[in-house]
């Protein structure tokens, strides 16, 4: 497959290059080899992208929602038809196994385009009757030019989850992918263009944090939606505050999975695997603190150990591989340091912990038992395949400890006690909760975090509120009464 794009940026319906920008080498995590070379956006590229988006948004925002929705739904169809190629590219970009990318990335992106394409024509205001026949009507209006900034773990999905509601509401978007995975968003731009999106409606510019910062500080920008870490979120939120801009923040997490002794233990083990090792642990909503009720702790660890025998680590493009390398050597080193800290602080290593002696940024799926709440590995987001198993005795204790974190992205409970399941879901201080599963993110459901994990929600009808604002129009049906 040709992994080198035609040029670094996609602006106004075409590929654009400016070789004066800082070089960005794209590394395939399986081989450590360079598979594409791009350039970060220079100030003229940033200006070009924002000017084109501002120009295009005026007409796009004036179209009917049905017309815009048609373009998005066409893009969804193209994306589904190209799923194989897009998945292969996503695997080159991230190192995630094709077994995952073929069902979770372009497909999830297409779902978002289809869903918000469907909703676009159904967005309406309301009529509010008042005394004396006066009334107010509301108009849902686009914000204008939105900036999207992506993390490296789900490059296609992140681009689509931001573009689809933004465009459905009549905005234009300038999207900056992560510098680690810059390839897939260009494909999203091509597909939207091919589906009939007017030039400039979705522009992609490459670059590091400084490019993101320049985009946000531009006066033409009405909103920024970031998927990234909490430290970056703080900077982006502060920069947006300078001009009182709208924000959506999808940030990090240290989510709990609470497993009671009445749970279906195989389902609980599956949930913990999904919530810790999918995408080699590089998922923001991962349930990395697994609280297991004391009586079943050793049984849980034994079953988990047996299931880990099913890990197939290898060439991520091979459809039988179910566990790929980490996205970069840097990220792998961060995870290695956390594993060392876990050992040093006295946690019991029950699986993995090693770096396989082979090419690629691999690290074994790792499980620590007897983890306590104060250990570094139980407090900080690791963003790699490291599961911490903690044990508990009572429901009240589990809930209090699950919530004792500055993050609040996701939380799940495994139990067969119906009332306890709902009690726990109501008690979790997290934006995205699960009962008897973990980490599913269908487009119909709101996704996002509370506390340090974020602001706003992606997906679901709620996302429309974050990409539009309501204008109230007061209509007088009577003479104006003035005091003099
Ligand atoms: N909540 C979610 O939906 C979600 C999803 C995926 C990843 N994440 C989080 O993302 C993190 C991993 O991704 P990452 O390492 O790419 O995150 P990161 O914060 O390092 O970078 C995210 C993006 O922000 C850009 N950026 C960096 N500094 C900036 C600045 N000052 N101004 C504007 N943009 C700037 C980066 O170039 C990149 O595109 C983890 O913390 C993970 O939990 C969250």
Oligomeric composition of the shown chains: single chain
Bound molecules: nicotinamide-adenine-dinucleotide
Separation of termini? 77 Å
Mean pLDDT: 98
Per DSSP, the total helix count is 16
Rg value? 24 Å
Q: Outline the biggest β-sheet.
A: 7 strands, mixed
Low-confidence stretches: none
Considering the protein shown, what is the CATH homologous superfamily of the largest domain?
A: Aldehyde Dehydrogenase, Chain A, domain 1
- Can you tell me the number of structural domains? 2
Shape: globular
Derived structural class = alpha/beta
> What is the total tally of β strands?
22
- Which range does the strand content fall in? 15-25%
Q: Do you know the CATH architecture of the largest domain?
A: 3-Layer(aba) Sandwich
Strand order of the largest sheet: 14-15-16-13-12-18-19
CATH topology of the largest domain: Aldehyde Dehydrogenase, Chain A, domain 1
Kindly state the percentage of residues in helix.
25-40%
CATH class of the largest domain: Alpha Beta
InterPro entries: Ald_DH/histidinol_DH, Ald_DH_C, Ald_DH_CS_CYS, Ald_DH_CS_GLU, Ald_DH_N, Aldehyde_DH_dom, BADH
Enzyme class: oxidoreductase
GO molecular function: betaine-aldehyde dehydrogenase (NAD+) activity; metal ion binding
Family: Belongs to the aldehyde dehydrogenase family.
